[in-house]
Amino acid sequence: MRTRFAPSPTGPLHLGHAYSAILAHGLARAAGGTFLLRMEDTDLARCKPEWEALIIDDLRWLGLGWDGPVRRQSGRIAQYNMRLEALAQSGLVYPCSCSRADIRAASSAPQEGVAFDVYPGICRGRPMGDRQPGDALRLDLAAAFDHLGGRHIGFDESGPRHGGHIEIDADLAKATIGDVVLSRKGEDIVSYFLASAFDDADQAISHVIRGEDLFRFTPIQVILQGLLDLPTPAYYHHELIRDPSGHRLAKRDDARAIRKYRQDGISPAEIRAMVGLQDVSANR
Ligand code: GLU
User: Fold this and answer.
1) 210 lines ligand 1 (CB under 6 A)
2) 64 C-alpha to center of ligand 1: Å?
3) Fewest CB within a 10 Å sphere: which of 40, 91, 170, 188?
C-alpha cells in the first residue's frame, strides 16, 4: 500500500484533517506500506508557508512520520502545464472568459442531485488559438468521453458510504460535473483536479484515503487519469468528523485546530481517542 496525506496549506490542521492523516498513516504502516506527505499549494494567494510549517509541526506532534521528502505542488507547475498542454493538443480543452455572473445568468436553478455548479457551456468550442490573457481553461467533457471512445472509466471505492466498483456514466457526468476548470482565470495555475490526479499517478499512489467531501470530485480525477493514460488508484473516502451540531468542520473552525488543542494541554493520544482512531499504528 502506498498512500498520502495531501493538505492544502490554507489554514491550520484541524481535527478533521488529523483524522484523515492518522487513518492514512495507520493503514499504510499496518500494511507495511508507504505514507507520503504532499502539500497541495498551487493556490499561491491562499497558501502560506506559515500554514505549511504549522501543519508539519502538528503532524509530527501527532506522531505521524512520512516517507521521503515532502512534495510541494507549487514547484511542479511546469509538469502540470505539460499535461494540460497535451489535453489541449488533443482538442479536449477550451478557453473560457465567463465571469461567475455570466455563468449564473446562463444557468438554470440548481438541480437536485447536481454536486456543484455545472458550467452551461457558453465558451465551449472556442479554439485554443483564441485564448485571451486571463481566460480560464475548461475540459470539454463531451469531447473527453468521445476521446475515451467508450472505454470503461471507473474506480474501486472501499469507503463506508459508496463501497464497490463505480463506473462513470458519460451522460450522468455531463449532467452533474460538466466542463470543469483545469486552469484558473487570470493565473497560470492548474486546478486541484489536474494537479492532484496527476500527482497520485506520478507518486504511484495505490490507495487514496481522504474525506467523503472529496468523493464528488473523484470522477473528474479518474477521467483525467484516463485521458492522460495514467493509472487510477483505489479510493477510500472516509466519514467526516463533525462538530456537536452535526456540521462538518471547516478550515475556519479554529476551535478545532490541533494547535488550539495543544495549547489546551490535550495529548496526541487524546486526539486519537477524540477521532476514534486510538488503535491505528502510531509513532512510526
Ligand atoms: N488538498 C485537498 C484538501 O486539502 C485534498 C486533496 C486530496 O486528498 O485529494 O482538501
Assistant:
1) yes
2) 18
3) 188
pLDDT 10s digits, 144-172: 999 999 888 999 999 999 989 999 999 99
Cβ of 226 below 6 Å from ligand 1: no
Which residue spans within the chain are E strands per DSSP? 2-5, 34-39, 71-72, 93-96, 136-139, 154-157, 164-167, 181-183, 207-211, 234-238
Q: How far is the CA of 7 from the centre of ligand 1 (A)?
A: 5
Task: Answer whether 0.90 is exceeded by the pTM.
Answer: yes
CA distances from 189 to 41, 196, 218, 250 (A): 10, 13, 20, 24
CB 212 within 8 Å of CB 233? no
Q: Which whole-number Å values give the CA distances from 137 to 12, 63, 150, 174, 251, in the listed order?
A: 30, 41, 24, 17, 28
Q: Where are the domains of the chain?
A: 2-275
Look up the CATH number of domain 2-275.
3.40.50.620
Closest residue by CA, ligand 1 atom 7: 6
Residues 91 and 135: beta-carbon distance below 8 Å: no
Mean pLDDT across 88-103:
91
